[in-house]
Design goal:
- The structure holds 2 protein chains of 2 kinds.
- Chain A is an all-alpha fold.
- Helix content of chain A is 74%, strand content 0%.
- Chain A has 13 helices and no strands.
- Chain A has helices at residues 2-26, 28-45, 47-50, 88-124, 126-141, 144-155, 159-185, 189-196, 201-209, 214-237, 249-256, 264-292, 294-298.
- The two termini of chain A are 39 Å apart.
- The relative contact order of chain A is 0.14.
- Chain B is mainly α.
- Classes of the chains: A mainly alpha, B mainly alpha.
- The interface between A and B is large, with 43 and 43 residues.
Chain lengths: 299, 336
Amino acid sequence: MADVAVSSSVNVKRAVLAEFWYYFRENTGAVIGLWFFVLLVLVAIGADIVAPHEPNLQYRDSLLVPPVWQEGGQWRFLLGTDAVGRDVLSRLIHGSRFSLFIGCVVVSIALSGGILLGLIAGYFRGFVDTFIMRVMDVILSFPSLLLALVLVAVLGPGLVNAMNAIGIVLLPHFVRLTRASVMAEREKEYVVAARVAGAGRLRLMFMTILPNCLAPLIVQATLAFSTAILDVAALGFLGQGAQPPTPEWGTLLAEAREFMLRAWWVVTFPGLAILTTVLAINLIGDGLRDALDPKLKRS
Amino acid sequence: MLAFLLRRIGLLIPTFIGVTIAAFGFIRLLPGDPVLLMAGERGLTPERHAELLKQFGFDRPIYEQYFDYLVGVLQGDLGNSLVTKKPVFEEFFTLFPATLELSICAIIFAIALGLPAGIIAAVKRGSVFDHSVMSTALVGYSMPIFWLGLLFIMLFSGLLGWTPVSGRISLLYFFEPVTGLMTVDAFLSGQPGAVRSALSHLILPTIVLGTIPMAVIARQTRSAMLEVLGEDYVRTAKAKGLPPVRVIGLHALRNALIPVITTIGLQVGVLLAGAILTETIFSWPGIGKWIVDSISRRDYPSVQGGLLMIAVIVMLVNLTVDVLYGLVNPRIRHQR
């Protein structure tokens, strides 16, 4: 009997995944985004092998060499070199590690904090709920980048603090989403049934209710991933994020700024890397939303 | 309506107090002694240090300090800038018109392009136009605007020489500010070429700042229109034989606009965050650049005051949007 139950639950999971993939695949943009993202992850993991040069190695005889297809370009520097002779392509490849790492860390901070606070607010209601939601309102009253800038000013500039700051700034969206779903779910029959069966508070919150609130959170997490990359790059650009010579894409742009009228490539490629990565993740987010939203599916 | 308004304002009070606590806490949370931070690099004798500690009230209990701060804020006293020694409140409002002008132009740009694009995309759902609008919107939404600004400067200012790189108006023109909005002041001054110069300085920052709001508005308008176009009353209007322009413009659009208004209101925060980047790139002398500069100059009272003022502006705009929303949608107004 138990074996039958286990195998049927595995089958249900498979069927759910197959259905999800069926709807996700219909969105061509999302599939392209996913492929690009997979490629980026592979490049980031194998950066040491893929990158033709060390990211911080300076070729002092080859300063501001243009990309290979332009006059004066060299084959050993495909996308040219920067003002101190570092290979732009290698720095971009190593920068992808930072961007993916930033996205993962920021989303983990915002998602775990948001789920915890949202569950508490939505489950317990009353004073705790009011307090948590007012604090979230305060965070939302500040434009995201401004609050992040000020938090970094308090914590001190640097990549880790920038990630913490953006994580805090993105927190309210997750708290609100979780709270709203928890409030919608907590009175439903299956929750009442679990409570009657003797499930404790923690079990009810994390095992019974939470799994049914995940769909909007997954979509929001994808969007937060791209926002995190953009905002940490913006902080890097303003000199408050990752510090040189870290090859973080926003920091690369900040370094390149003074040479932009002489060397277009040092400015163009880092920004293009940010844009395509963020675009790919947003495409995936759109696809996830379409695939996970039952309302859209039926229409 | 009055009850609705009062209820909305009542909800703002705890948020406002929270914002003041955040702004007050900012200077106290900074690592190190606040007096030494304010003194900067000069160094202080112990006597002077004690004197300043007393003068700023840092020796008193924290709740008393907060209460004094709150009373000061309510009277418009945000302290003095450490760099210019002028009141922060005054500095803020000297620079605010520049940001206001840029933000107004950016949101007009965003609405003027985003709204019609969203409407047409919804009406012609699945067409080439729809696909291209949605792709462009997604690219705009994913755009690192600080990079877009640099690209524009490289292309239009560097390569083509069409627009100036930075500032609000050419140094050739000088007039006393009347409204603080450069284009209006240039027009009022009557100097030939001044308006043109102001506009040429304004155009690139406007496009850069308006890009993300434009994308968001286009996407939101399209989805709101699609929802409304499937409603029964739209079908009825069509069945009555009304011309499509009337059905879309009068019956569908009016209802679709309700969520769009909220979206536009929410863009104020996006604009002010974007202003930090846009103003830094184009050396636009507004509050965004001022805050970035204040942070790097460690002028903490300015940062604190700017933080508070911007949050208050965002809160007031959100209140206005809520009230507008209540005005156009009675269902919200009568909700308890």
